[in-house]
Amino acid sequence: MNKLAIFTGNAHPQLANKIVKCLGKELSSALVGKFSEGEIRVKIDENIRGKDVFVVQPTCPPSNDTLMELLIMIDALKRSSAYRITAVMPFFGYARQDRKDQPRVPITAKLVANLLTVAGANRILTMDLHAGQIQGFFDIPVDHLFAIGVFIDYFNKMQSKNIVVVSPDVGSIKMARAYAKRLSAGLAIIDKRRDSPEKTEVLHILGEVEGKDAIIVDDLIATGSSLIEAVAALKKARTNSIIAAITHGILSGPAIERIDQCKDLKELVITDSVPLTAEKQNPRIKVLSVAPLMAEAIKRIHNEESVSCLFD
User: Fold this and answer.
1) b or e along 14-33 (b: 16 or more beta carbons within 10 Å of the residue's beta carbon)?
2) Predicted structure pTM score
3) Given the residues 192, 199, 212, 286, the one annotated as active site
4) In the chain, how many H helices and how many E strands?
5) 299 labelled catalytic
6) CA angle at residue 251 from 175 to 182, to 5 degrees?
7) On the CB side of 162, how many CA atoms lie within 13 Å of its CA?
8) Could you report the average pLDDT of every consecutive run of 10 residues in the chain (312 residues)?
């Protein structure tokens, strides 16, 4: 492990510190700040020639700053003769535009993949991508982890044996099916129409939810509109209790206010893939750490061991 170096930008230093603690290491030193006009300034403060370098940096809000920090750090590390550079992105930003679903729109997920590769990244380590096919946008290896194991450990402590796992839309069916299988639970799907990126309308619930303890699973919560509408639909269908398990808690705009007002949502369980700032904390929001999972993946990659056992 002497040839291992782990750096972090300003996106989520708390997670990076948890990861290095799990590995029995210390964070490597780098200056990551800004010049007076706002441009990102990076300087690597130690010799990393020939080292296996990992940069822990989820590209969470402010997305433009965190992405640019990551790209510039990768460039600095490449020019410092690092042996291999792995971008550790627990949350992969700009992933929601992964195809041309309308005329004259970009495919930002592919653009970011190109930027990371050109900057000098040799490998990507990420978790719960918005769409699995984003892995194919890269011409370098991508290790795509899943937070399901972290959530399952938490839900196995629940006393309820009458659980139904709910997919809030068609896109999350595969994830919901995996949760249902692991929890030996039923499966339900909410059929909805999306009027805009922020607004949806629930049409039907496919599956038996009446009298059951519902767990809504998804990869991302931004403004929370989809979640609140799903909770309302499930409550109308006479579910017993409702919990949400969502990997990336972006919680932007009116999300916290909506969750606070939604008394039918018993608990929102998220991971620390992105930081939960003080103003976003709420008694009904529970944060689970993915640091042990990310640390194990980093150790296995560094030791040239299989990572596939961590994919489930």
Assistant:
1) ebbbbbbebbebebbebebe
2) 0.93
3) 192
4) 8, 14
5) no
6) 20
7) 10
8) 92 98 97 97 97 98 97 98 98 94 94 98 97 94 96 86 90 92 94 64 84 96 92 94 97 95 96 96 96 98 92 68
